Amino acid sequence: MTDAAELRRRTQEFLSAYPPADTVRPDFLRARFDAGLAWVHFPEGLGGLGLPRSLQAVVDAELEAAGAPDNDPRRIGIGLGMAAPTILQYGTEEQKRRFLRPLWTGEEVWCQLFSEPGAGSDLAALGTRAVRDGEHWVVDGQKVWTSSAHLARWAILIARTDPGVPKHRGITYFVCDMTDPGVEVRPLRQITGEAEFNEVFLTGVRIPDAHRLGGIGDGWRVAQTTLNNERVAIGGMRLPREGGMIGPVSKTWRERPELRTHDLHQRLLKLWVDAEVARLTGERLRQQLVAGQPGPEGAGMKLAFARLNQEISGLEVELRGAEGLLYDDWTMRRPELVDFTGRDAGYRYLRSKGNSIEGGTSEVLLNIVAERVLGLPAEPRTDKDVAWKDLAR
Amino acid sequence: MSTQPDLLYSEEEEALRAAVRDLLTDHCDAAGVIARTESDAPHDLSLWKALADGMGLAGLLVPEDQGGQGATHREAAVVLEELGRAVAPVPYLTSAVVATEALLACGEEGELLSGLASGRRIGALAVGLHTAPGAAFTTVRLEGGALHGELTGIADAAVADVLLVPADDGGLYAVEADAVTVTPQISLDLTRPLARIALDGAAGRRLGDAGPAVRRALRTGAGLLASEQLGLADWSLTETVRYLKERKQFNRPVGGFQALKHRLAQLWLEVVSLRAAARGAADALATGEDTEVAVAVAQAYAAPVAVRAAEEALQLHGGIGMTWEHPVHLHLKRAKADSLTHGTAGAHREALAELVDLRAP
C-alpha cells in the first residue's frame, strides 16, 4: 500500500473516532495533533508521522471534505512558520513536548523578538542583553516590528550574551514568556493608521536556562533556521491568474469604463503582464520544489512581488480619480490579520510600501542574490573580527 | 484554467539542450559568426546541415508519418534557447518553425513538408518579419495564374529554396526561389538578415488560405521567439557576471561594487521570470490550451528583457563592449531586432487587452 493510501485510511479512521460535528474544536485539534495528522513531516509523537511534507495535502483534503475545523493558520503564522521548525531542529525533547502541541492548535500564540531600533538589516548587531543569573538569564532591551506581541503567550528571542566577541558569535536564542512582568508591549502605529506591529520593552525579564534553544553563543546559527523558513513561506504561495493585487484593479477597470484613460491603459496592461509572469515564476518554483529540484528563484520572488504590489496599488489609487483622494479609515486599530484585499486602494498603496522592507529589505535581498546566486564578491566586512562592544554605534 | 502549464524541462529536453549546446560550442564560435557576417554567405549552412540532417531538429514539429520527429513546441523551444544563446546564423525559426507551421496549417502533406522537416530544403514565409499575429500583411497580385509584386523584410529569404507567398486572392502559394529575384537588405540583425523579393510573373502552387495559415505561423513564431530571447538574455547575464568577476579596477573585481551587483541581481530576476513566461508559451503551444494569452504574455514580457540584458551587457563590459570584435553586439542587434519580430511588446499588450477583457478607453 502506498504512503498516500495508508495516510488517507488513517485520516478516515481518525475522522470516525472524532466526528467533526460532535467534537469541540480544541479537543478535535489536540486529537489530530496526537494522531500525527497535524504536520505529517514532523516526527511521531510531535504531531507528525515522519512522512514527506508533500503528503500533508492528502490529510488536508480528507479533513476539508469532512468539514473539520482547522487551526486558523493565518492567525498563528509566526508559530507555525518560524518558531516550530526552529524548536524542532534545536529544541530539547522536553521543549518540543512542552511547546509544539499548543503552538500547533493555536492555544498559544507566538511572536518573534528579533529586530531592534538599532539592528534592522544588520540584525546581528542587536544590543538586547541577556545576563546569566544562576539557573536564569536576565534580559534587558528593546525589540520592534513585533506583530502579534499583544496576543502572544511566547516569543522567540535573540539576545546578546557575550559583548566581548564579534557580533555573530555572542548571541543566544531563547523562548521568552510574554506574561513575564518585565515585558511591556506598546502598539506601533503605521502610516496606514492602524497598528499591526508593536514595540516590546524588556526590563529585567527572567528566562529560565531551560528555555534556551541551542548552545550559548550559537543563537545566530539557530536564527538562520527561523529566517530561512520565513523566506520559504513568502516564496511558496500559489496563485490563480489575477490572484494577487492585480485582481481588484482589473475588476475596477472592467466595471468602471468612465475611469479609463489611455495612459492608465498602457500602464495597466504592462503591470498585468508583469503580474502574470511573476505568478508563472512562482508556479515554476513550486513545480521545482515538488520535483525535488529547488531553484534559487525563491530569493527573487519576494523582490518581484514587493515591486509589483507597490506599482499596482499606486496605479489603482490614480485609476480611482476623485475617489483616489479619499481614504477609507484612519482609525487606530490592532488587527489580528493583515488583509490586503479587504480594504480600499489607498490602504493597499500605503501597506504595500512595507513589502520591500519587512522580512529583508529589497536592497539586502539584491545583495543576497548577487552573492549567493550569481557568486559575485561579498560586501567588504569591517566588523567581522571586531568585538561587538567595540563596534561604532 | 483548470490545470497549470508544465514549466519545467524534462530529462529528455535537458539531454536535447546538452546535445545542441555541444554542437554549437564546437561549430558556432563568436569569432566565426562575426567573420561570416561580413562574407557573401552570412548563413552557416554546414551548421544547418548538422542540426537538421545530423540531429533531425528541423522536423521537430512535423509528425513522424510526414517525415518529421513528431515532437512538440517544448523541444523546439529548447533548441531555440540554445540557438539564441549562440546567435547562430541558421534559418531555424523561419524554416523549421514559421514556414513549417504555415504548411501544417494548410494541411500540406508530402514532399514540400518532408523536405523542410529533413532540412534538405529551407522554407521562408514571405511576410514581413515585423508582422504581428493577426495583423494585416502585404500580398502580391495574382494575374493570369502568375504572381506579381514585391515583398520586403523577409527573414532568411536569401537561403530559402521555397517561399510561401500570400496573394491578393486570399491564397498562400508555394514559389520556388529560383523563380523570383531575392535581393539582400542591409539588416540591423547581422545573423538573421532580411531580403526583398520581387515576383515578375512567378509560378506558384496554391497551398490553402493565407489568413489562418499566416496567423498560426506567426503566433507560433512569436511564442517560440520568447525562448530565443531567453537564450539571448541568459547569455548576456552569464557572460557579464563571468567578466565582472575577472575584470579589476580600483584594485578589486568590478563585480564587487554594489551598484553593479544590484543591477545584475535585478537582471537575474528578470531572466528567471522570462524563463517561466517562455516555458509557459511553449507548453501552451504544445497542448493547445490558453495559447493566445500565453503567447501574448510571453512576447509582451520577453522583448524588453532581452534588449535590456544585451544593453546591460554592453554597458557593464565597458569599452570592450563597443568593439566589433566582442560578440555582445551580435546579441544586442538580435535582441533589438527580435523586439520588432512578429509584433512588438506593445502590439502583444494590445492583443491582451482584448483577450483578457481590459479594453481601451
Automatic annotation (TrEMBL), chain A:
Keyword Transferase included in the entry's annotation:
no
Q: Which InterPro entries match?
A: Acyl-CoA_Oxase/DH_mid-dom, Acyl-CoA_Oxase/DH_mid-dom_sf, AcylCo_DH-like_C, AcylCo_DH/oxidase_C, AcylCoA_DH/ox_N, AcylCoA_DH/ox_N_sf, AcylCoA_DH/oxidase_NM_dom_sf, Mycobact_Acyl-CoA_DH
Key words, A-Z: FAD, Flavoprotein, Oxidoreductase
Cofactor names? FAD
Q: Where is the Acyl-CoA oxidase/dehydrogenase middle domain?
A: 111-195
Location of the Acyl-CoA dehydrogenase/oxidase N-terminal domain: 23-107
Please list the residue ranges annotated as the Acyl-CoA dehydrogenase/oxidase C-terminal domain.
Answer: 217-374
Q: Does the keyword Transmembrane helix apply?
A: no
UniProt record similarity statement: Belongs to the acyl-CoA dehydrogenase family.
The record ties this protein, via PANTHER family, to:
ACYL-COA DEHYDROGENASE, ACYL-COA DEHYDROGENASE FADE34
User: Under what name is this protein listed?
Assistant: Acyl-CoA dehydrogenase family protein
Origin species, per record, is Streptomyces marokkonensis
